UniProtKB/TrEMBL annotation:
SUPFAM superfamilies: ABC transporter involved in vitamin B12 uptake, BtuC
Source organism, top-level taxon: Bacteria
Family: Belongs to the binding-protein-dependent transport system permease family. FecCD subfamily.
Keyword list, A-Z: Cell membrane, Membrane, Transmembrane, Transmembrane helix, Transport
Protein name according to UniProt: ABC-type Fe3+-siderophore transport system permease subunit
Segments traversing the membrane: 16-40, 73-94, 106-125, 132-150, 156-180, 201-221, 249-277, 316-335, 356-378, 398-420, 432-452, 458-476, 488-508, 576-603, 642-663
NCBIfam families, alphabetized: PRK10577.1-2
Bilayer topology: Multi-pass membrane protein
Localization per record: Cell membrane
Length: 669
């Protein structure tokens, strides 16, 4: 090693020594300043220490200080430290800079397990919520590893599996809340990651778990560092790589699950803390195990103080705020993630129909039958019935707009899904998964809170603008590295996370008109009118008319950029046109049905499995499948828990999540 190299290495080490305390100390200093400022307004300084040990129950200020302010401060520090340590272990064991409890599905599993126990088996919580959360987090993590096993637990495969499991479990949680409306508000606040405390019981319960996890992590530092030598080298030094990994993963899952049990889902703190400490100079695992929990505690403490001073009527949950701040970090880290070159031919092999016209005609007949079923079949207090001609006279004005809107939205989402999948060569791309639907919904929400009155065309333009912005964000990421589908998918999920968090912030603004949008956000046709049905039908008809004009482009683009240019196709111009069509279809369907659904994923794939490989037949078959799926979801949502209703988009998402998991499993090799 030369003198210059030694000097550079020493400089980097010294920079880390000085910069790490600053990285942790600056957020902590700001959070402490905000905390002291709030505390001075709450209680005079002479009562601070006395209220800790002997609070005056006649003084509400001392009670708030002792049983709300201090426990909330303690829980933000404890949860932040637990997540920082869990993220460090996940990233070291999986050798993946994007691994953390949210991105690998651990938090989602713990959350849905606690929701199930709260609603249907409260006796399981009598001895603490931690064990239920650990069980749920373990199950969801094992599912993710099962999805990633076929490719040697590749980092990108684990992250994609985790994100899809998280989306699926989130849909399941939303379904449970829709079916148990009397508890939905409390469950929603908890699942969003609220740090509000009513006493110190949670903090005292969490502290021993964190101390035990920290002790286990320090004991695992050396064995985990040896794993950097690869399994053969680690084994030659007397290390058992499998046992070390399983032990480390168990500690990380437990820390993540108990944090979720305490406050709900706090996103991306476990991603940011280890990555930022590494970038700041923590080169060794021992340094990261020390500094990442400190930074996690500092970041969550600061986030919690900031959300309390934002000018909203209702407080934004800390979990929502961290998601909004962490998703951009995920986008910034994606270029650093190594991804194997993508091959367009990795989709599952399916047969090709030489003449699909009879099958399409059969599909039209099936669609017509279920259209009649949706309009005439139903339930009332006496049970199931089939409406007579006289009853249809007053039922059709109520049901027909919902049926037409659902049918149109399904066709448009299927159209957008086919175009995205063929344009990118990615069979697991979809408007909902790539964040386009969420961004369109955010555009509508921003319009809603910024203007006193507006029309449907204005809402459509706002949704179109949001969809186009999301496409502009994710398209460069996807086209880099030869259209790597996993990179495109991850960037889309990051955009979806930002759109979802921003929507939650808009909803927290307190605008009294926002109540009417809550059902729409879950994918509902409750408010569909005749005008909505006419508008949806017209837009769908226009897109159906345009579809044949895009068939040649969609046949050529999957062959690759060089082949497309070789046959004279203006790739850049074609992509712009197709992106506008995708954004238009997604914005229109989102406007009338909401952002929740996996129809844009499932319909194109089902059409392909049925043998419709060419672009135009696939568009037609996917449109039939998508329209049928969402129309049946709307009808089932009206009937399953009568007299209450389940939003059609939510029901479709609940079915689509497992379908996506099954699709990933079939492509695991």
């Amino acid at each position: 090693m030369t003198v210059m190299q030694l000097t550079k290495k020493t400089t980097r080490r010294n920079t880390g020594i000085w910069f790490l305390p600053l990285l942790v100390g600056i957020p902590a200093f700001i959070a402490a300043s905000l905390s002291i400022s709030d505390l001075l307004r709450l209680l005079p300084t002479e009562f601070w220490w006395r209220a800790i040990s002997n609070a005056d129950f006649t003084d509400p200020r001392q009670l708030l200080y002792r049983h709300a302010f201090l426990p909330r401060l303690a829980i933000s520090l404890l949860v932040g430290a637990a997540l920082g340590l869990a993220g460090t272990l996940f990233q070291q064991i999986l050798r993946n800079p994007l691994a953390e409890p949210t991105t690998i599905g651990t938090n989602a599993g713990a959350s849905v397990a606690l929701t199930l126990a709260t609603l249907y088996a409260p006796w399981m919580l009598e001895h603490g919520r931690e064990w239920v959360a650990i069980a749920g987090g373990t199950i969801s993590t094992l599912i993710v590893f099962a999805l990633a096993s076929g490719r040697g637990f590749s980092p990108i495969r684990i992250i994609i599996g985790g994100l899809i499991v998280s989306l699926t479990f989130s849909s399941a949680s939303a379904f449970l809340m829709a079916a148990n409306r009397e508890y939905s508000q409390e469950l929603y606040i908890w699942q969003s990651g609220s740090l509000i405390q009513n006493g110190d019981a949670t903090a005292f319960a969490l502290a021993p778990w964190l101390l035990a996890g920290a002790a286990a992590a320090f004991l695992l530092v050396r064995p985990l560092q040896i794993l950097d030598l690869a399994d053969e080298g680690a084994s030659s030094l007397g290390n058992n790589p499998t046992l070390t990994r399983m032990t480390g993963l168990a500690v990380a899952v437990i820390l993540s699950a108990i944090a979720t049990a305490a406050v709900g889902v706090i996103s991306f703190v476990a991603l940011a803390a280890p990555v930022l400490t590494r970038l700041a100079g923590a080169r060794t695992l021992h340094q990261r195990v020390i500094w990442a929990p400190l930074l996690g505690a500092s970041l969550l403490w600061l986030t919690d103080r900031v959300v309390q001073i934002l000018p909203f009527v209702s407080e934004i949950p800390a979990g929502t705020a961290t998601a909004f701040l962490g998703a951009p970090l995920l986008l910034l880290l994606l270029p650093k993630l190594r991804i194997a070159p993508h091959k367009n031919g990795d989709a599952p092999s399916v047969f090709r129909r030489r003449n699909g016209l009879p099958w399409l005609l059969t599909g039209l007949l099936v669609l017509g039958f279920f259209l009649c079923l949706s309009l005439a079949a139903g339930r009332d207090i006496n049970g199931w019935y089939w409406a007579t001609s006289d009853e249809l006279g007053y039922l059709l004005p109520l049901r027909a707009p919902r049926v037409v809107v659902a049918l149109s939205a399904g066709i448009m989402l299927a159209f957008a899904g086919v175009v995205i999948q063929r344009m990118t060569g990615n069979p697991i791309a979809a408007p909902e998964v790539l964040g386009i639907s969420g961004a369109a919904a955010l555009g509508v929400l921003l319009l809603f809170v910024s203007m006193a009155s507006f029309s449907r065309p204005a809402m459509f333009l706002a949704g179109l603008a949001g969809a186009l912005v999301s496409l502009l964000l994710i398209a460069p990421m996807g086209y880099r590295k030869a259209l790597a589908p996993e990179r495109l998918l991850l960037s889309g999920v990051a955009v979806a996370t930002m759109a979802s968090a921003a929507s939650a912030i808009v909803l927290a603004s307190g605008d009294p008109r926002l109540g009417i949008l809550l059902a729409w956000l879950s994918g509902s046709t409750y408010t569909a009118t005749a005008d909505d049905a006419i508008t949806a039908g017209i837009i769908t008809a226009i897109l159906v008319g345009i579809a044949p004009l895009t068939a040649r482009w969609l046949e050529i683009l999957p062959l690759g950029m060089a082949a497309a240019r070789g046959v004279g196709l203006g790739v850049d111009q074609v992509r712009i046109i197709l992106l506008v069509l995708i954004a238009t279809a997604t914005a229109a369907s989102t406007l009338i049905i909401g952002p929740l659904s996996f129809v844009g994923l499932m319909a194109p794939h089902m059409a392909r499995v049925l043998g419709f490989q060419r672009a135009l037949p696939q568009l037609a078959a996917a449109g039939l499948v998508g329209g049928l799926m969402l129309m049946l979801a709307d009808w089932a949502g009206r009937m399953l828990i009568f007299p209450w209703q389940i939003p059609a988009g939510l029901l479709a998402a609940l079915v689509g999540g497992p379908y996506f998991i099954a699709l990933m499993r079939t492509r695991r090799s």
